[in-house]
TrEMBL record:
Protein name: Uncharacterized protein
Species: Prosthecobacter fusiformis
Superkingdom in the source lineage: Bacteria
Length: 67
């Protein structure tokens, strides 16, 4: 069973990634989401912690590409 503490820890992952200073060569200005590395990390965390959201994003993306 998931406890409130576990849920809070999971949501902190997204906040940490968003505010984390990345030291990769494609890093965009602080707060920007243009960094490929940052987006890749965020995508992996969404798949890991919120698989239902990941599936919804995949389906929505495929629908937009088909339109």
């Amino acid at each position: 069973m998931t406890t409130q503490h576990d849920l809070q820890s999971d949501t902190q992952v997204f906040t940490t990634i968003m505010n984390l200073e990345m030291n990769d060569k494609d890093r965009s200005p602080r707060g920007g989401w243009n960094s490929d590395a940052r987006l890749e990390v965020l995508a992996n965390e969404i798949v890991r912690y919120m698989p239902d959201l990941a599936q919804l994003l995949v389906q929505s993306g495929m629908q937009k590409m088909a339109a």
